[in-house]
Amino acid sequence: MERLRPTRNSRRGSGAFEALIVIPILLAIVLAVVEFAMILSAEQKLAEASGVGCRTGSLGHSDHDVKAAVKAVIGDKRYDPDRIHIRRWKDKHAGPMIEVKVEMPATAASPNLLRSVGIDLSGDTLTGRTVMRVE
After folding, report:
1. Domain coverage including residue 98
2. What pLDDT is recorded for position 85?
3. How far is CA 84 from the centre of its chain?
4. pLDDT tens-digit profile of 26-55?
5. Does residue 6 belong to any structural domain of this protein?
6. Residue 109 falls within a domain, yes or no?
7. Which residue of 3, 32, 37, 66 has the lowest C-beta tally within 10 Å?
8. pLDDT tens digit string along 63-109?
9. How do residues 81-93 score in pLDDT, each as one tens digit?
């Protein structure tokens, strides 16, 4: 008995079919990496902004100065004064304290690249929070 071998013509188009399957998966992975990097960068910027704002407030400056310090770090484009929360209180052991929390919608940090594959960031919020003792 002679074995039947696939001829070259019988495999025609298989490369295109494989590319049709693999390319969308690779594209989704690349978009996920890009979006993750953008969100991570924004979270680091928020943490830095809350730290700078909290440090400003811990030195005795006003809430207006704290918001100005936060604005200097995150820039005019992403600055929203309604998303900066400043809380001052007196702790019985540590003394006067200040907390600065800076929030940003995730869609302000990333263009929501993975919405088409079912991962939607439109309801998520990124937050940077710092607590310090007032000097």
Report:
1. 15-133
2. 97
3. 17
4. 998 999 999 999 999 999 999 999 999 999
5. no
6. yes
7. 3
8. 999 999 999 999 888 889 999 999 999 999 999 999 999 999 999 98
9. 999 999 999 999 9
- Amino acid (1-letter code) at residue 125: T
Q: Is residue 2 part of a domain?
A: no
Number of domains forming the structure of the chain: 1
3-state secondary structure string across the chain: CCCCCCCHHHHCCHHHHHHHHHHHHHHHHHHHHHHHHHHHHHHHHHHHHHHHHHHHHHCCCCHHHHHHHHHHHHCCCCCCHHHEEEEEEEECCCEEEEEEEEEEEHHHHCCCCCHHHCCCCCCCEEEEEEEEECC
Residue 9 maps to a domain: no
Q: Tell the residue number behind the tokens 């924004």, with chain if given.
A: 42
The model's pTM: 0.82
Q: Residue 22, exposed/middle/buried by CB under 10 A (0-12, 13-18, 19+)? A: exposed
Q: Report d(CA 57, CA 66) in Å as an integer.
A: 6
